[in-house]
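Chapter review: from sequence to fold.
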Amino acid sequence: MAASARRHHAIGFGCDISHAADLVYSDGIDLRDGSNIARIGVSCRICERLECHQRAFPPYDASITVDPHRRAILPYRIDGISQRS
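The token string follows.
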């Protein structure tokens, strides 16, 4: 049996970066370092992160293909749109 990908779950608490320094959760984080910023979308249907392993729904402007013989980050392939960001 092939090993399955380990899933991680988190609760996202987000705000505009201009307010981040005012929150205790940003203590010890270099807010000037862009690699510390997690892009969190408002909704899976409009999110630009096509390879997000937490995606619950496909983008509104795409069709999907389900292949029962393929395993990837998503349980379906997103068709009909070019790779975003």
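Two observations follow directly from the output. The chain has a mean pLDDT of 81. The beta strands are 63-65, 77-79.
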